[in-house]
Specification:
globular; two-stranded parallel sheet
């Protein structure tokens, strides 16, 4: 039996290097393996916790869809859909919320982080917290469990969400018998937390990201902003601790990586290293960037692809949702 893989990206900003390296690249690599069934989605309702402008939401959602396709996702070989086009996800989210302890939600990273920020700023503990953010892990559990997902490629900061999905699934299964598959996370340890321009984790929240499809001149400027130390060019440098090298090896060939490793160990100036990084990144992104721009100019084409994907998705979700409702005594 093929294992089910599922990955989603929420439209809360332009697709950046962290999205690509931490989620899209490993997910597409799994898709090449014939041992897996793959599903990818645009997590637009997740984005609603932050994005409250209709035009912005639409554009960012199209941006996520276009990025997946431009980077090689084949919608004929995978299920590719927009979250909001599959109503069973939201029906299941309510059901799962009735099996999710509030204490579990209290411990979710995103909520805890906001509570801590409010505490240090002297604000009310729940200032700025909407219920979408608080129950975000439940909706993510519904995304995962409804597709009977076995593997979820995630960044390190998303591991907890997969663990919460397992906890909720176990609570349900204890009461109603084996229903949900318990998902496992898949993570690339080397790139699990990718540093941003300022050395902190690359995140839209920190405004320290490098948009993946940035035009060449702006891409070069952003790469030049990456934080480095003050060591002189001739001083040997450890490639394993360098943000520049960790990014370089994601876009270069194996021969290029080994050559760059040697140059780091023998001594290379940071300016030269940034120039080399720009060249391999821009070369890799050139064709996907062109495809991305073409797709963004044709939103109708994206709608057709996503709606066809939603039909395929619902062929899986509708029967399973009926089974779940029968078990809880609602569907006759």
């Amino acid at each position: 039996m093929k294992k089910q893989v599922l990955t989603g990206i929420k439209p809360t900003g332009r697709i950046h290097l962290g999205n690509y390296i931490g989620a899209i690249k490993p997910a597409l690599q799994l898709a090449e393996n014939q041992s897996y069934n793959t599903a990818y989605f645009v997590a637009d309702y997740h984005g609603l916790t932050k994005i409250h402008d209709g035009h912005e939401m639409k554009e960012l959602s199209y941006g996520v869809a276009a990025a997946w396709l431009a980077l090689g996702l084949n919608p004929d070989r995978a299920i590719f859909y927009r979250q909001s086009d599959v109503p069973e996800i939201f029906e299941l989210s309510w059901i799962l919320s009735c099996f999710a302890p509030k204490g579990l939600m209290n411990r979710a990273h995103a909520y805890k982080s906001m509570v801590e920020e409010n505490h240090f700023a002297g604000r009310e503990v729940d200032a700025g917290v909407n219920m979408g953010l608080f129950t975000y892990p439940i909706l993510m559990a519904a995304d995962i469990l409804l597709f009977q997902t076995e593997l979820v490629p995630v960044g390190k900061d998303q591991i907890q969400h997969v663990e919460i999905a397992r906890d909720i699934a176990e609570n349900f299964n204890k009461l109603y018998g084996e229903t949900f598959i318990l998902p496992e996370y898949v993570i690339q340890e080397e790139t699990s937390v990718l540093p941003g321009l300022d050395g902190r984790k690359m995140s839209k929240s920190y405004n320290n990201t490098i948009p993946l499809f940035e035009e060449p001149k702006k891409l070069q400027k952003l790469i030049n902003k990456i934080k480095t130390d003050s060591s002189p060019p001739e001083e040997p440098k450890d490639p394993e601790t360098s943000v520049l090298f960790s990014l370089y090896k994601e876009f270069a060939t194996s021969d290029q990586v080994e050559e760059m490793r040697r140059r780091f160990q023998e001594g290379i100036g940071w300016g030269e290293a940034k120039k080399e990084l720009f060249q391999v990144m821009n070369s890799f992104i050139e064709k996907p960037r062109s495809k991305y721009e073409e797709l963004m100019a044709s939103p109708h084409m994206l709608d057709v692809i996503l709606q066809n994907g939603a039909k395929k998705a619902r062929e899986k979700t509708i029967p399973f949702m009926k089974e779940i409702k029968r078990k809880i005594g609602i569907y006759h």
